[in-house]
Amino acid sequence: MAAKICHQLLGAFLTILVLQPLVVKSRPVKLGSHQRSCGCPGGPTSGGLDVNMNNSLSSERWLKFPVTYGFRSGYVVPPGLDHKAVTSVIDVAFGKWKAAVPDPQFAFQRITPGDNANIKINFTPLPGYHGYGYYPPNGSLYLDNSHTSWSTKPSPAGNEVDLLSAVLNVVGHTLGLADSTDSNAVMYPILNYGSIKRNLSPEDISRIQNLYLYSMSHLELAKSI
């Protein structure tokens, strides 16, 4: 009996050893947003956002289209990433947000270099964060190049951050969306290492439509009067 108990305890101990790396690898990735208009990353704000009943920002949005985006001059892709792959991921992310709003006016255009773009993209050290997006009219989009192992592979490793999943979130911030409390949403501020979230959730789509589709239709009505 004693031998059996010892065997069970040894088995439980080995199980903990095996599972421990998985627990470590599931630590959260922090994605942030900020309303303050400036040219550098800042800490998350705790207030000052104009939020309506649909949980969408009702004023921080782009008013002229197409909204342009591009990389700042002299930006450097972190080691292990390919420039073309990164550009493709950025294009795909903007394409997914565009597809969510069925209005031809809601469009984006990539320009090179992106120093004069509405949304300026750059890799820079982001202590405590992996991605950071500023609301309009700033539109700055930052991705970490100091402590993040980015992945553009179909399946990221357990210690990597999926670039498309993170970019979808920070692009949403640069379009005017605040964080979501729905863990299934792209706009949820936490993304686990090794996980993917590459498609907008119904809540993401509803929020971006509330922010742009409704307001743009009223803009057209005002023009016609």
Q: How would a crystallographer describe the biggest sheet?
A: 7 strands, mixed
Tally of alpha and pi helices: 4
What is the CATH topology classification name?
A: Collagenase (Catalytic Domain)
End-to-end span in angstroms?
88 Å
- How do the strands line up in the largest sheet? 3-2-4-6-5-1-9
Q: How much strand content do the residues show? A: 15-25%
Report low-confidence residues grouped into runs of 5 or more: 9-27, 35-59, 221-225
General shape: globular
Helix content: 25-40%
Number of strands: 9
Name the CATH superfamily classification. Collagenase (Catalytic Domain)
CATH class: Alpha Beta
- The overall number of domains is 1
What structural class do helix, strand and pairing data support? alpha/beta
Pfam families: Peptidase_M10
Binding site for Zn(2+) 2: 173, 187
Signal peptide: 1-26
Binding site for Zn(2+) 1: 147
Description:
There is one protein chain. The chain has helices at residues 2-25, 83-99, 163-175, 202-224; strands at 28-34, 67-71, 108-110, 119-124, 131-134, 141-144, 150-151, 161-162, 190-192. It is α/β, with parallel strands linked by helices. The chain has a seven-stranded mixed β-sheet with strand order 3-2-4-6-5-1-9, with helices on one face. It has a two-stranded parallel ribbon with strand order 7-8. It contains four helices and nine strands. The longest helix is centred in the first third of the chain and has 24 residues, at 2-25. It is 34% helix and 16% strand. The chain has one domain (29-224): Collagenase (Catalytic Domain).
